[in-house]
Amino acid sequence: DAGVIQSPRHEVTEMGQEVTLRCKPISGHDYLFWYRQTMMRGLELLIYFNNNVPIDDSGMPEDRFSAKMPNASFSTLKIQPSEPRDSAVYFCASSFWQGKTEAFFGQGTRLTVV
Amino acid sequence: GENVEQHPSTLSVQEGDSAVIKCTYSDSASNYFPWYKQELGKGPQLIIDIRSNVGEKKDQRIAVTLNKTAKHFSLHITETQPEDSAVYFCAASNRDDKIIFGKGTRLHILP
């Protein structure tokens, strides 16, 4: 398996534009997590899915953020409209068996909103 | 919900010496405590983990200890090497299976 695949690796967009980040988890993993990393706040859990169903989205900053997992091999994180304070590195991770084993992270998407 | 505190935020250690990073957690129901290492430009990667039924675990130069009563856990790296320079994150997984991370420790190994 190639690991968790995220795209794009870098995204630069103008304030107000819609941004979509994509993630392909490792095949067979039941859990998918979206994290945001900034210098000030570290790694923040935004939302996680179990078997494609959103379980906890309490970390999503506001209604401008939404995430979907239409099938076991694909998830998106969308920001609409984007703001400069959304600039961060966004990581997707997946794990097997109830989140109590290793979470495998993708390479991340570095988002810059200007 | 779970809250994980991590100290120090930055740590400089002479090559060959030991490094210790400490974390505390708030949810007594948490039962899985992984440690991740993040190198520049990459995602975090698991280096060691411990479950609540174990007090200590070792893997070569790396060891983790857990004190459930005090809700403390620590990472110990012995005989540090230049390649140990990275950001290290502790984490806790609670009854809801969420993995909550500490804010990270930037470890510098000095030549």
Which key phrases capture this entry?
heterodimer; A: 114 residues; seven-stranded mixed β-sheet; 11 strands; B: 111 residues; mainly beta; six-stranded mixed β-sheet; 0% helix; 57% strand
Overall residue-averaged pLDDT value of chain A: 93
User: What best-fitting shape of chain A do the alpha-carbon axes yield?
Assistant: globular
Give the quaternary arrangement of the chains.
heterodimer
> What fraction, in percent, of the residue positions of chain B are helical?
under 10%
Beta fraction of chain B: over 45%
Low-pLDDT windows of residues of chain A: none
Give the distance, in angstroms, between the N- and C-terminal Cα atoms of chain B.
Answer: 41 Å
As a whole number of angstroms, the C-alpha radius of gyration of chain A is: 13 Å
In N-to-C order, the SSE pattern of chain B is EEEEEEEEEEE
Number of strands of chain A: 11
Instruction: Give the number of DSSP strands of chain B.
Output: 11
Q: Please give the share of residues in helix of chain A.
A: under 10%
